[in-house]
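Note to self: keep these together.
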Amino acid sequence: MCGFGGKVLLVTVGAPRCEVADLIRAGVSGSFLKRDSTSLLAQVIRHIIAGGLWFNQEQLQSVMNLSKRTSSETQHNRFTEREQKVLSYVFEGFTNPRIAERMGVSTSSVKATLQQLFSKTGVRTRSQLVRIVLEHHRDQL
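Structure:
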């Protein structure tokens, strides 16, 4: 958005927590969730046109949490051996039961590992996980 003088409002179903800071750095003036009311949308547009910014509390909190991370916390978020193994099977398109069978663990264990990966990467779905890992965690594959 370099050189662009206009205002940008992102209308979305949600942005992964790890991308909110990038959006702000890129100059996005606000993020509006599709589930919010149209009357709020009109208010947000007026607010941004007047020079304000609009991000919901959850998004701002995630940006603050990201900025507070230290190098030791970043090291803590490295993927474990089990997480890396599950990721490799996710990349191959295996289902949870098939991953469990391959690893010799329960399906519940695979689900728990996936939830840990979702939490570490700030995503909610397998497809988001794959994208974020490829974009930001390729060194851990």
